[in-house]
Amino acid sequence: MDDTPGSFVDPTKETFAQFRALERPGPVHMLNLVRFREHAAYEDGTVATGAEAYASYARESGPVFERLGGRQVWVGKPELMLIGPESEAWDLAFIAEYPDKDAFVAMIRDPEYRKAVRHRQAAVADSRLIRMEPGVPGSHFGEMSGAKRD
Hints:
Helices cover 33% and strands 21% of the residues. By secondary structure, the protein is an alpha+beta fold. It is globular, with a radius of gyration of 17 Å. The protein has helices at residues 13-21, 50-67, 101-109, 111-123, and strands at residues 28-36, 71-76, 92-98, 124-132. The longest helix has 18 residues, at 50-67.
């Protein structure tokens, strides 16, 4: 775990409870913004970069993610924070889709995932994980289909 002030690696019990209580049928998109540590912080002293540790996390947790119906719908490498704090520079950004919120909860509770998450905790210096309702682009910039226009 990273105890750097302002660093976010794992959800709190409160925000996880809010996630579970948010009832809505259908898919859930999770926007992930990730900053790696230069050197992974494994409790057992394993030597790796943050990027290498995150690759181990992806390799070990991927089968659980896919088994529960998850898929990656978008991935990119952030290049420049044009608007926002420069301190929030990210190494990786992606959107993961789950069939519903219960699939995400099942992944977090899966014993194989729980073993793999140690790599994520060792790898990540800071992150953001934002639950989103997927939508269809509307006919106007910045609009979702069916959204009301002012």
